[in-house]
Write a structure and sequence with these properties.
about 50% helix; 4 helices; 2 strands; mainly alpha
Length: about 90
């Protein structure tokens, strides 16, 4: 998901970036990590994906790379129209 700006939403990495930049107004691309029934959410988010999830993980990374290139070439609005919502690929 491509967003032009927004809060950290509890994400410590984004909190750090916002603090360094002094603004929430920068384009970001969100990559889902799937749902977890694990109590250790940090371990789920930062750990290696399970072998069964590896293919989806790699597809997500490839799609995020395409979205990043699109943002740079065509702009964030165009990328949001192209990549958000799962349609029009």
């Amino acid at each position: 998901r491509v967003r032009k700006k927004g809060s950290a939403g509890g994400h410590n990495g984004l909190k750090s970036i916002i603090a360094r930049l002094g603004t929430e107004e920068f384009t970001r691309i969100r990559i889902g990590v799937g749902e977890s029934s694990a109590e250790d959410l940090v371990g789920h988010v930062l750990g290696r994906p399970a072998p069964a999830d590896r293919e989806n993980f790699e597809k997500g990374i490839a799609e995020a790379a395409k979205a990043a290139a699109w943002v740079l070439k065509e702009g964030a609005d165009s990328a949001m129209n192209r990549f958000n919502g799962g349609g029009g690929k």
